[in-house]
Amino acid sequence: MPRHQLDHDLAKARIDLAMSMPEDDFYILDDERVVTLRFDQATNLVGIDVDDTPATVAHSQRWRDMVWPLATHHANLAEAH
Questions:
Q1: Cβ partners under 8 Å of residue 31, min gap 6
Q2: Are 71 and 57 contacting, i.e. CB atoms less than 8 angstroms apart?
Q3: What secondary structure, in 3-state letters, does the chain show?
């Protein structure tokens, strides 16, 4: 496969993944709790929800595991842009 086709395929995969990502910002605290941040229309933080439902924790962990390999480490952000 030509390099340009591979780049295009990777970019499309990232766009598809981004479009299906959860809308909420969340942090996985540990193996038992997830924090979801709630924002208003002006993007002000208006609340924090702690969820210990096993299904929610597992869902968040799956998303983390899927996107982690695509992430850019903060130390490399300047180089990436």
A1: 57
A2: no
A3: CCHHHHHHHHHHHHHHHHHHCCCCEEEECCCCCEEEEEECCCCCEEEEEEECCHHHHHHHHHHHHHHHHHCCCHHHHHHHC
Q: What's the predicted TM-score (pTM) here?
A: 0.64
Q: Tokens at residue 36, please?
A: 């979801």
How far apart CA 68 and CA 59 sit, in angstroms, is 14
Residues 65, 31: Cα–Cα separation, whole Å: 13
- Look at residue 54 in the predicted model and tell me its pLDDT: 97
Mean of pLDDT over the chain: 78
pLDDT for the residue numbered 42: 93
